User: What shape does this take?
Amino acid sequence: MMETRVIRAWGDEERDRSLMEEAGRLIREGELVAIPTETVYGLAGDALNPASAKKIYEAKGRPSDNPLIVHIAELDSLGSITREIPEKAEILIREFWPGPLTLIFKKSSAVPRETTGGLDTVAVRMPVNRIAAEFIRASGGYIAAPSANASGRPSCTTAEHVYEDMKGKIPLIIDGGEVGIGLESTIVDLSGDRPCLLRPGYISLNRLMEKIGEVDTDPSIEGVMDENAHPKAPGMKYKHYAPKGELYIVKGDPDRVRERINSLCLEGTKKGLRTAVLSSDETVNDYRADIVRSLGSRQDEESIARNLFKVLRDMDDEGADLIYTEEFNTADMGMAIMNRLIRAAGHRIIEC
Ligand code: AMP
Ligand code: MG
Assistant: This one.
């Protein structure tokens, strides 16, 4: 088994530079390196090397028709991997890059189909995280980097989570501390006639529409999906983020939600199951279950987004069998938070 080193990027220039040189050399040799970004940790390989894409799919246990996002560090890099840059893309780039927004373009022949899961389009993002940007520059400028979790598990928001999933599979994890946002990037498809939101994220639909007008929403975002469906973002059809226990979203009037969750937990306990509740700071004292965890205050939706994946992972460590969560339809990030929760719950929703 390969030894996996975890090295902290200390912010000490000299040390960081030699770490980046080493990481860049690994990438050019076709190896994989896990890196922090502002959204979640990424599992990076050379985006222009078909063998690296294969390694990424293997390490994640990810189906190879699920395309990878190409990460760049300079705007100048965009031209050589795309066939055209529509005007609306230019507007979004000016407004949101570098940052947590991924755009889909028609791809150039420089990008191998192994990287795009066989598609004729390419997803591109320019992260704002300093370590990510320096790493991309040191690695030749084009990095394929899906989330660094094993396929199906919650995405990684700390280097420890990456180590749990990638130990023995990759040579190096760069530790940049806990990420800032905690949910994956917003994805917008600009390769067709009309802009289409494929995955909600930190940058909300409203903010996109303020800049470029109407944006369609891919049905997979909220609709019921099955393995035979063909959403535009292929990754959306796969089961994702799921804890080992059975997760249910309970929605409706807050008082009834509280009563319902408590009675469901009581039933679970009678059956000898270990029960858990995901609440907010405002309601954390209202529940009776083996484990009650707050995702954060409803006044601070960014904290809820940042804690979500960590709390889902903790449910596995805690051995929760039955998990009930409140709904988190917050103003800006609610669509993104609920999109991840609905998929983690395998669409199990209880209305009351
Ligand atoms: P992850 O790398 O885990 O953040 O997932 C990346 C997701 O981006 C994939 O699962 C796809 O759903 C989406 N994606 C990447 N490239 C494309 C593309 N060319 N067209 C549509 N969706 C894409
Ligand atoms: Mg992912």
About this structure: The chain has ten helices and 16 strands. The mean pLDDT is 94. The CA atoms of residues 58 and 64 lie 9 Å apart. The two ends are 50 Å apart (CA to CA).
